[in-house]
Amino acid sequence: MRIPNWVPDAVFYQIFPDRFYNGDPSNDPPDTEPWGGIPTRENLFGGDLEGVIQKLDYIADLGANAIYLTPIFRAGSNHKYDTFDYFAIDPAFGDDTVFDRLIHEAHARGIRIVLDGVFNHCGVGFPPFQDLLRKGASSRYKDWFMPYDFPLRMKPYPNYATCGGVAYMPKLNTRNPDVEAFIHRVALYWLERGIDGWRLDMAYEIHPGFWRRFRKAVKERFPDAYLVAEEWRDPSPLLQGEAFDGATHYQLRELLLDFFVRKALSADSFARALEVLRGRLPPGAEWGMLTPLGSHDTPRLLTVCGGDPKVALLMFSFLFTYPGAPLIYYGDENGMEGGDDPDCRRPMIWEEAAWNQEIREGVRRLVRLRHKIEALRRGVFKMGYAEDRIFSFYRLGRGESVFVVLNDTPVARAATIPVLYEDGTILKDSLTGELYRVSRGCLRFDPLPPRRSLVLVAESEAAIR
After folding, report:
1. Number of folded domains that form the chain
2. Domain residue limits at 234
3. Catalytic residue positions?
4. What pTM was computed for the model?
């Protein structure tokens, strides 16, 4: 499968626009609440695209070179997954002029923009659905949706197909050629406006033929556009080279939580499970996977780590040294906390005194390493030693190799780790500068600090046995 060449080098930063930064209070809706309040499923805090523009230097300083924006089109909710107008920026977020400035300013900094495409369903304010509500069976848009009978009603239960039973999000009939043509027009329009790809919401709910034709329509004109599917289960059916360049790798996130957080797996059983997970992906698919540790649909990373920054940094260390495109959910780089939706969608904390500097500096260091060392982005993955709470792996590139050691032991310990390097090879920890020599086929640590990650690079072109 051909994945856009820029994707393996990308570090994504996910933004939920209403909660990132209020750059233009003049477009705030009347019921906008003061920044920093408690998020609900309905309230608004005034974040907008101007706010994203004003914080592009912050994002660039972090090392992210791609932004994934959750929906920005005109809609009725704070999350905007209930689209009213697929060709208009939501007025609470700005307008076409602001959007064009965002694209220009982001690209000027080498940052790509990927939008959220919500094509499985729309919002009740979508004009074709409004027409159906008014005219019923005589509406020209009757076949754009899946009504059960007429007249349509939303309460107590909708009598039409919806997204997850939510009445304000009617499901689109994507088997209708007119609907398909409309969605193609939407996708191409925003690509023409300068975006670099689409994250496709609930892609698993839409039949494969739709996505094959969608890919063809997009790639014929924009071959470098990144098409990434939302998927929470096995992504392999979506990754056969006919539809998507990648998928959200939530299965990998769950496996990491099982090892680092839930302690449900030892390192060797984690390694076996990871091999199974990797084996399910078609050849080459791992390079296009979007790998999150958190998102707008999950509790925040530090929260699931029980507030322990060292556990969070172990997971970040895996993320930034593993194949795929790592994704940082806004604020996780500073140790923001939050439970399930909507608590995970708190307004971004901009007061530096409230940031967890241990996590922030650790993330910035790891991102810099990923950009510096090509093997971390494009090198072959090879499993290493895995026993008890120590897991390791190699990234093997052109003339360079990296050995990653993740020690999840909660106390300092002595450890002897067999390696594939020849005796006498000197390895330097890129995180601390410490040097280690291979002796008798092993690296010896006495002690190996608790909950510590090492990113070991050979001082010279070392032979792998």
Report:
1. 2
2. 7-120+174-372
3. 201, 230
4. 0.97
